[in-house]
TrEMBL record:
Residue ranges of domain Isopropylmalate dehydrogenase-like in the record: 4-349
HAMAP family cross-referenced by the UniProt entry: LeuB_type1
Originating organism: Oceanispirochaeta crateris
UniProt record similarity statement: Belongs to the isocitrate and isopropylmalate dehydrogenases family. LeuB type 1 subfamily.
Subcellular localization(s) per the UniProt record: Cytoplasm
Protein name: 3-isopropylmalate dehydrogenase
PANTHER family membership: 3-ISOPROPYLMALATE DEHYDROGENASE
Cross-referenced InterPro entries: IsoCit/isopropylmalate_DH_CS, IsoPropMal-DH-like_dom, Isopropylmalate_DH
Pfam families documented for this protein: Iso_dh
Length: 353
C-alpha cells in the first residue's frame, strides 16, 4: 500500500500543532513498522506571502498526487483585507476542498469524563457521556453558491443545493448512524429557506431505505439551543455546510475546547484531515496551543485513508491516558493544575504509545 501524505501546516497555530502530530506519526511508524512519505506544501496566508497565491500550483500538484492530506489551519487578521479570491479562507481552504471534492466533513465531539468540569454545561445536563458526530456537507451550499459578490454597499451570497448533493451527504449521515447509536437528526431551516425545504424532502424520501435509523428533523435555531439544553439527545447530526460549521464549534465547546476536536473531510478519491478549529491567532506563536485536535485528525487519517486501525487506536488511547493523568494545555486546564506546552503535551502522548 502506498502511504503518500501531503502535509500542509498553514498559518497561526497550524505549524505548531502539525509539528506535534508529525512527531506522534514518527513514533507510530516505529511501533507499527511502516513509513509514510511526507510531502510538504504551502497553503493560506503563509503561501500568499511567499508565492502571491493562497493555494499555489505546486500545492495543488502535491495534494492531487497524494493518498491523503493532513492540514493544520489557515487564516489570520494579517490577510483579512485581501480580495476574496486571495484570502486564505476562500482562495486557500475552500478552493482546496472544491478541488479535492471533499463533500463530507465528519466532526466527532466526545466529552472526556475528566474534562466535564471544562464544559460550560452543568452536571445536570451532562449526566451521561456526550458523543455527537456532526456530518457536515462540505463542497456546496452558501460558501460556494453563485452569484457571490462584494461591493462597497452590497454583499451577496447564494445558498444552493441540488437533490443529488443533498442525497450524497444524507446517505453518509444515515450510514454513520447505522454504525453508532442509530439516531439521525437532520438540521435545516425548512420553515424559511428553499434549499432547506429541498433538503428535508430528500432526507424524508431516503429514510425508508434506513428503517433501523430513528430520524428526526430540527430547525437550526432550535438545534443550537437543544445542544445546550440536552446534548445527550443527539447521536449523528447531518446538516449543510454553514450550519455544520457553526454547530460543530458549539459541540466542541460543550466538550471543553475546540482544541480537542478533529475532523475528516472525505472526498471521492483523496481525503483531508484537519482540526475543526482555526488558526487561533490569539495564541499563535506562544507554543501553548492544544495539539490534540491535530493529533486526533492524524488518527482519523490512519483509519479512514489507510485502514491502520490499530495505529489509530494507539493514538486515541495515549490521548485518553494523558487527559486522565491530568496533563493539560491551557484551554483544558482546571483549577490547581499547571499547563503544559504544545510540545510537552505531544511528548506526553508519544511516551504513552
Ligand atoms: N480550517 C481552518 O483552517 C479554519 C480557519 N479559520 C480561520 O482561523 C482564524 C481565526 O478564527 P477564529 O474565529 O478565531 O477561530 P479559531 O478556531 O481559530 O479560534 C477560536 C478560539 O478557539 C481557540 N482555539 C482554537 N484551536 C485551539 C487549540 N488547538 N488550542 C487551544 N485553543 C484553541 C482559540 O485560541 C480561540 O480562542 C480566521 O482567520 C479564520 O478564518 C477558522 C476556522 C477553521
Ligand atoms: C475557515 C472556513 C473556510 C471554514 C471553517 O470555519 C471550518 O471549516 O470550520
Ligand atoms: Mg469553522
Amino acid at each position: 500500500m502506498s502511504y503518500k501524505v501531503a502535509v500542509l501546516p498553514g498559518d497561526g497555530i497550524g505549524p505548531e500543532v502539525m509539528e506535534s502530530a508529525l512527531k506522534v506519526l514518527n513514533r507510530i511508524e516505529e511501533k507499527f513498522g511502516f513509513k509514510m512519505e511526507l510531502i510538504f506544501g504551502l497553503i493560506g496566508g503563509s503561501a500568499y506571502d511567499e508565492t502571491g497565491s493562497p493555494l499555489p500550483e505546486e500545492t495543488k500538484k502535491i495534494c492531487l498526487g497524494a493518498d491523503a492530506v493532513l492540514l493544520g489551519s489557515i487564516g489570520g487578521p494579517k490577510w483579512d483585507g485581501l480580495p476574496p479570491e486571495k484570502t486564505p479562507e476562500l482562495g486557500g481552504l475552500l478552493a482546496l476542498r472544491k478541488m479535492l471534492k471533499l463533500y463530507a466533513n465528519l466532526r466527532p465531539a466526545v466529552i472526556y469524563e475528566e474534562l466535564r468540569a471544562m464544559s460550560p454545561l452543568s452536571e445536570r445536563v451532562l449526566r451521561d457521556k456526550v458523543d455527537i458526530l456532526t456530518v457536515r456537507e462540505l463542497a456546496h451550499g452558501i460558501y460556494f453558491g453563485e452569484p457571490k459578490e462584494l461591493t462597497d454597499t452590497m454583499g451577496l451570497d447564494t445558498m444552493v443545493y441540488t437533490s443529488d448533493q443533498v442525497e450524497r451527504i444524507v446517505r453518509k449521515g444515515f450510514e454513520a448512524a447505522q454504525k453508532r447509536g442509530k439516531k439521525l437528526c437532520s438540521v435545516d431551516k425548512a420553515n424559511v429557506l428553499s434549499s432547506s425545504k429541498l433538503w428535508r424532502r430528500v432526507v424524508t424520501e431516503l429514510a425508508h431505505e434506513y428503517p433501523d435509523v430513528e430520524l428526526s428533523h430540527m430547525y437550526v435555531d432550535n438545534a443550537a439551543m437543544q445542544l445546550m439544553l440536552n446534548p445527550l439527545q443527539f447521536d449523528v447530526i447531518v446538516t449543510s455546510n454553514l450550519f455544520g460549521d457553526i454547530l460543530s464549534d458549539e459541540s466542541a465547546a460543550i466538550c471543553g475546547s475546540l482544541g480537542m476536536l478533529p475532523s475528516a473531510s472525505l472526498g471521492e478519491e483523496i481525503s483531508l484531515f484537519e482540526p475543526s478549529g482555526g488558526s487561533a491567532p490569539d495564541i499563535a506563536g506562544k507554543g501553548i496551543a492544544n495539539p490534540i485536535a491535530q493529533i486526533l485528525s492524524l488518527a482519523m487519517m490512519l483509519e479512514y485513508s489507510f485502514d491502520l486501525n490499530e495505529a489509530a487506536a494507539a493514538i486515541r488511547s495515549a490521548v485518553d491516558d494523558c487527559v486522565k493523568s491530568g496533563i493539560r494545555t491551557g484551554d483544558i486546564l482546571s483549577a490547581g493544575m499547571t499547563a503544559v506546552s504544545t510540545k510537552e503535551m505531544a511528548d506526553a502522548i508519544i511516551s504513552r504509545i
